[in-house]
């Protein structure tokens, strides 16, 4: 098959900068759509078949770009939203290049990967490079909050696809791709007590904060590192003033599990914390948000194909299991072979030092493009 010319890392970084400098917090649909407009225009220019699905629930639009071909397509999933609020570029995290590193909000998670997938599809179409099967590129607007409006679209496209590639960031110092991820659960806790003066009427009060503290200890006790189960309680809130027995308190709970069975068991245990006793009422809502992505023989075959392509480009591609979730959790749970973590190398996702190793843009993009061409 003919090779795909993706240019140079310098040229890729110059165009990626434009993506980073469009701030796209998940909660601002118009902002996410501004970047989606740019991707849509670039793909329309080279003849991609486009389908834009209007956003719902205050989130941005989804965009499907399809290349021609016969048979079940290869699905590539990327998201354009980030965790960073407007003003981050003008404040603590301007786009900048320092040596081998390029910094900016969302550049690692996951605008570099989204851009590389966009660029690969654009060049496949521009250069009329044949692929073994059609490619479907899906841009989503809400991955950072659990993909509430895009999950159904992702799953619908995955069911008709032969395999799925996820261009989330490569992990660790060696830039590993991802063959398994933990499942993710999210819960919201609201505790209602009885207010009273903390001095004169202490016995009449029922402290929601004390009840919350007891609940937190219970949730922390669910941690089982050998099984791969962890819980984290944050943020936490409660009370009004030091001299008032707090009538309200609450928290959020993050749950990570290695297997679907452990997820069901932990979900039942956390939801069972709801109830009433001694004047305290506890409400618990939520559940498993993303099923575990379990490493399968089909996923390993995808990995070996990617690793062989990486060797051709000149680097080794290790694999890893990751605790964080992605949209690959959804597609893998459907039984569709899924390979994740195919974005750029770097570090600092969701952190002030977020960056990519920009000289890796070309070799990482080459592997992603060759997978689109050859799978």
UniProtKB/TrEMBL annotation:
Keywords: Hydrolase, Metal-binding. The keyword Magnesium does not apply. It holds the Pfam family M20_dimer. InterPro entries: Bact_exopeptidase_dim_dom, Pept_M20_glutamate_carboxypep, Peptidase_M20, Peptidase_M20_dimer, Peptidase_M20A. Coiled coil: none annotated. The lineage of its organism: Bacteria, Pseudomonadati, Pseudomonadota, Alphaproteobacteria, Acetobacterales. Transmembrane segments: none annotated. Residues 179-276 form the Peptidase M20 dimerisation domain. This is M20 family metallopeptidase. The keyword Hydrolase applies. CDD domains: M20_CPDG2.
């Amino acid at each position: 098959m003919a090779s795909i010319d993706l240019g140079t890392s310098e040229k890729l970084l110059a165009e990626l900068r434009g993506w980073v400098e469009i701030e796209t917090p998940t909660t601002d649909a118009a902002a996410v759509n501004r970047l989606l407009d740019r991707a849509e225009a670039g793909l329309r220019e080279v003849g991609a078949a486009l389908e834009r699905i209007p956003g719902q629930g205050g989130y941005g639009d989804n965009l499907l770009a399809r290349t021609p071909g016969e048979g079940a397509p290869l699905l590539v999933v990327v998201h354009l939203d980030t965790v960073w609020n407007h003003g981050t570029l003008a404040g603590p995290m301007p786009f900048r290049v320092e040596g081998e590193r390029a910094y900016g909000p969302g550049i690692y998670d996951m605008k570099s990967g989204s851009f590389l997938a966009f660029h690969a599809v654009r060049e496949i179409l521009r250069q009329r490079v044949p692929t073994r099967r059609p490619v479907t590129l899906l841009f989503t607007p809400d991955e950072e909050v659990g993909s509430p409006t895009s999950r159904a679209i992702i799953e619908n496209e995955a069911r008709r696809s032969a395999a799925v590639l996820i261009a989330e960031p490569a992990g660790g110092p060696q830039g590993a791709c991802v063959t398994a991820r933990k499942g993710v659960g999210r819960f919201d806790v609201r505790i209602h007590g009885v207010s009273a003066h903390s001095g004169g009427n202490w016995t009449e009060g029922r402290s929601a904060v004390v009840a919350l503290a007891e609940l937190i200890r219970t949730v922390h006790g669910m941690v089982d590192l050998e099984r791969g189960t962890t819980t984290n309680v944050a943020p936490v809130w409660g009370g009004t003033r030091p001299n008032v027995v707090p009538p309200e308190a609450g928290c959020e709970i993050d749950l990570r599990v290695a297997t679907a069975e452990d997820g069901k068991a932990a979900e039942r245990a956390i939801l069972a914390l709801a109830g009433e006793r001694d004047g305290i009422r506890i409400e618990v809502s939520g559940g498993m948000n993303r099923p575990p992505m379990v490493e399968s023989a089909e996923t390993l075959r995808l990995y070996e194909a990617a690793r062989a392509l990486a060797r051709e480009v000149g680097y080794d591609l290790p694999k890893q299991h990751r605790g964080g979730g992605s949209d690959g959790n959804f597609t893998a749970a459907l039984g569709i072979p899924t390979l994740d973590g195919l974005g750029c190398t770097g570090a600092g996702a969701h952190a002030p030092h977020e960056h990519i190793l920009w000289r890796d843009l070309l070799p990482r993009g080459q592997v992603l493009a060759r997978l689109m061409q050859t799978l």
